[in-house]
Design goal:
- The protein has a seven-stranded mixed beta sheet, with helices on both faces. A four-stranded antiparallel beta sheet has the order 6-7-8-9, covered by helices on one side.
- Strand 7 and strand 8 form a beta hairpin.
- The longest helix has 14 residues.
- By secondary structure, it is of the alpha/beta class.
- It contains seven helices and eleven strands.
- The chain has two domains: 190 residues, Vaccinia Virus protein VP39 (Rossmann fold), CATH 3.40.50; 51 residues, N-terminal domain of TfIIb (Single Sheet).
- The structure holds S-adenosylmethionine.
- S-adenosylmethionine binds next to helix 2 and strand 2.
Length: 251
Amino acid sequence: MSDAETYDPSAYGRDIAGDYDDLYGAIPDTDVAVACLAALAGEGPVLELGVGTGRLALPLAARGLEVHGVEASEEMLGELRRKPGGAEIPVHVSSFDDYALEQRFALVVLALHTIYGLPTQERQVRCFETAARHLRPSGAFVIEASLLDIGAFRAGQAVRPRFTSAGQVELQVHRYDPVSQHLDWTNVHLSDAGVRLNSGRNLYASPHELDLMARIAGLRLRERWGGWSREPFRADSTRHVSVYAPSGALT
Ligand SMILES: C[S@@+](CC[C@H](N)C(=O)[O-])C[C@H]1O[C@@H](n2cnc3c(N)ncnc32)[C@H](O)[C@@H]1O
């Protein structure tokens, strides 16, 4: 069976929900990301795709914004609902390329490279199209996505530290097939508590491919930064934060 046929959007969350906050709750730029998203959202409301345990949604809601989520994993949502304010975030349980809500949003956001988890280009395009349908005319769809550092690969494989802090290190081990653009990943998390592995397959898309998907969906690139501090996007950027707006809103 193909990746598309075996794809289960809830698999990642089922595997990691119990450990997610210990592993990623302290991602260093979360506060900066929240400030950037709040500025983009204006008065709101905000829809977060893959809302997870609320790393971004809860601090956005704490700023007074109305925040909704789309999430495939009941296990991740269980963690969200256990937190103060988590149960008040309305969440639609679905894959984020296939949902239909009545409401229209000032900001739709998909963070942490999660777009690449959708296993086919068709589904990634559908993610853009569905986000576009949920935007207000003056709204924005924001994607944070990592960039492939092709120079780091030898014989199709690369290892890089994702983050290090006192007592813990995470190494990302990647295998990349340039023909299919499949990026097989294993995160190796090392700490005093032991070793934690989790793995999956991504379908990589370059920034320009994402821009074309946006155009298919009736959106246009409004801004692209190298991170949430709105630093310039440059040749040595390791990720991008891209802001798409409905084509009609850009002249
Ligand atoms: C890397 S986590 C990010 C969670 C949260 N946005 C954050 O920034 O901490 C990705 C989240 O997206 C969810 N997810 C992955 N693929 C999905 C899909 N196709 N549809 C809906 N949710 C999905 C996972 O269950 C997980 O909660």
